[in-house]
Amino acid sequence: MTQYSKEFKEQALKLSDEIGLKKTSEQLGVNYGTLAGWRKNRKKKNRDKSAPDTSPLTEREMQLLKENQELKDANEILKDALGFFAQDRKK
């Protein structure tokens, strides 16, 4: 049984969100069922984390949450790009 690192799983899930499970499993050589299981677990964890809040968010708070998520996503893209270019430079 192959063990995958947490980072590998996260990157595989991101890729599967972009191009789909089938293509990701083919590209990475990960069993389709394994990848589908990771997605299912992620969905369950996200559902568990998002416990119902008793106070509704204001429109401004919703806007800030959306902006915060966009910035986090942009940071992840920049980190990936930095890693790619740093790796390319070593060659």
Q: How does this structure look, described?
A:
This protein has 91 residues and is mainly α. It has two domains: 1-51; 57-91. Helix content is 79%, strand content 0%. The protein contains four helices and no strands. The longest helix is centred in the C-terminal third of the chain and has 32 residues, at 59-90. It is flat and about 45 Å long. It starts with 5 loop residues before the first helix and ends with a helix. The model has no long low-confidence stretch (mean pLDDT 87).
Write down the Rg: 17 Å
Distance linking N and C termini: 32 Å
The overall strand count is 0
Name the overall outline. flat
Strand content: under 5%
Task: Provide a count of the helices.
Answer: 4
Low-confidence stretches: none
Largest β-sheet summary? none
What structural class is derived from the secondary structure elements? mainly alpha
Mean pLDDT: 87
